[in-house]
Design brief:
With about 450 residues, the protein is α+β, with helices and mostly antiparallel strands. The protein folds into 3 domains: about 140 residues, Two-component histidine kinase, sensor domain (Beta-Lactamase); about 70 residues, no CATH class; about 170 residues, Histidine kinase-like ATPase, C-terminal domain (Heat Shock Protein 90). It contains 7 helices and 12 strands. The strands form 3 sheets. The protein has a 5-stranded mixed β-sheet with strand order 6-8-9-11-10. Strands 1-4-3-2 form a 4-stranded antiparallel β-sheet, covered by helices on one side. α1 packs antiparallel against α2 and α4 packs parallel to α7. The protein is rod-shaped, with a radius of gyration of 48 Å. The two termini are about 45 Å apart.
Length: about 450
């Protein structure tokens, strides 16, 4: 059966039939027990008293006794001789002396009545009872029908409650597979089906984010590559008849360097997103990585007349992470601050260690950015035209790379206007105290969005 709904109903129907069969068999067993316990003792007593009444008072005394018993108990009683002749009416009742049973061992009904014959100890007399069955399946038919209806009703509700959300989930998965990335189940169930629906919604969110980011990234890359390639083509044409070939060659070299910088930045993004199983995680001293990064950036800072001031407050914080990724994040944030800080104005770096966190703040004294641009500073290829001039060589990937590296370490990065300037705040989980340096693999991979 392909339909879960039909399978559930079929299972419940089978269960009902099995229950009915068990009830029928149990009813037959109770019938045998009841008939035996109900008739055995009373028939022996009635047989003795009827025989005594007949032998002492004849047919009239026997008739009075039998009438008295019939009035008190259900059914009709007869006393016959060994040949089946009724000792009151003289009617031949020999056919009632043979007790017939069905396959369940129950007496066969005669005109809806149970006929039981009991001989005396010397076999001279037979007491015959013609009475309604004391216990029968027919009496339970209304009850069984009611139980069957209730079970079937609850079965339909159960099948509907299971199958309907699964069909809805299947329809949602089908729509998602056909390209409707915004569709979600949005289930409020708290059971396993609800967990499955919530897992699908979470997966769909991640896939939508990945696909949207990928499309945006491809569009941005196409846009970024189009302009320098066009200028390269134009410069190549100019070189054919250029009066100053050196100037044309210098222009081509500038565009080639720009393309190289773009490709290098893209490779850094890819590296930050790389295979988590291949990423080394070790105990890293924040101040050590920070000082090494500052040393690397000092030459560029001095060339622009900018100093880097560090305030770590004797911070000895450590984090578990990839030192190269952490250095890359710090370097991109620092170079961004150096690029937009005016000459003879310092870039301030502050390291703090609140509870179980390490906070690194980098502040420049540049023009800052509009408030509505702050949430987009870490998007790939985003530039604030009024202050972040692409002529500086920036392609808008530095802060995106920094965010990627920080998120891989389960941290957080944000930007805020410092009035004047821009402050970038990075927070990372601090390594637990007392544990040894370890080497393991990180298990988190996030995508640009």
């Amino acid at each position: 059966m392909r339909s879960l709904y039909v399978r559930i109903l079929a299972t419940l129907l089978t269960a009902i039939l099995v229950c009915l069969l068990i009830t029928f068999v149990e009813s037959a067993r109770l019938d045998r027990i009841t008939i035996r316990s109900f008739f055995e003792g009373s028939m022996n007593l009635q047989l003795q008293q009827a025989r005594q009444a007949y032998e002492e008072g004849g047919a009239s005394r026997l008739a009075a006794y039998l009438a008295e018993v019939d009035a008190a108990l259900q059914g009709q009683r007869f006393l016959t001789d060994r040949n089946g002749k009724d000792l009151v009416s003289g009617i031949d009742r020999s056919d009632m002396l043979v007790m017939r049973t069905n396959f369940l061992g129950l007496p066969k009904l005669r005109n809806g009545q149970v006929v039981i014959a009991r001989p005396s100890s010397d076999s001279l007399y037979y007491l015959v009872i013609d009475a309604p069955p004391p216990f029968g399946l027919a009496r339970f038919i209304p009850y069984l029908l009611l139980v069957t209806g209730v079970i079937a009703g609850f079965g339909i509700l159960l099948a509907t409650g299971i199958v309907s959300p699964l069909r809805r989930l299947g329809s949602t998965v089908e729509r998602f597979g056909k390209g409707d990335l915004a569709v979600r189940v949005n289930s409020n169930r708290k059971d396993e089906i609800g967990e499955l629906a919530n897992c699908f919604d979470s997966m769909a969110d991640r896939i939508q984010t990945l696909l949207t980011a990928e499309r945006r990234l491809l569009q941005d890359i196409s846009h970024e590559l189009r302009s320098p390639l066009a200028r390269l083509s134009f410069a190549a044409e100019l070189m054919k008849n250029a009066p100053d070939p050196d100037a044309a060659a210098l222009r081509m070299k500038h565009e080639i360097n720009r393309l190289n910088h773009l490709v290098t930045s893209l490779l850094e993004v890819t590296s930050a997103e790389g295979d988590p199983a291949a990423r080394v995680v070790e105990r890293v001293a924040v101040t050590t990585v920070l000082q090494s990064t500052i040393d690397d950036c000092s030459f560029e800072a001095e060339g622009r007349g900018v100093k880097i001031n560090v305030a770590s407050a004797a911070c000895v914080a450590e984090v578990d992470g990839d030192p190269e990724l952490l250095r890359r994040a710090l370097e991109n944030v620092l170079r961004n601050a150096i690029r937009y800080t005016p000459a003879n104005v310092p870039v301030e770096v502050t390291v703090e260690q609140p509870e179980r966190r390490v906070r690194i703040m980098v502040r420049d004294y540049g023009p800052g950015v509009p408030e509505d641009a702050l949430p987009h500073l870490f998007d790939p290829f985003f530039r604030v035209d009024t202050s972040r001039d692409p002529g500086t060589g920036n392609v808008g990937l530095g802060l995106a790379i920094a965010r990627r590296a920080v998120l891989v370490h389960h941290g957080d990065i944000r930007a805020e206007n410092a009035h004047p300037g821009l402050r970038v705040v990075m927070e990372l989980p601090a390594a637990p105290h007392g544990s040894k340096t370890r080497v393991t693999t990180a298990g988190t991979t996030l995508s640009l969005n």
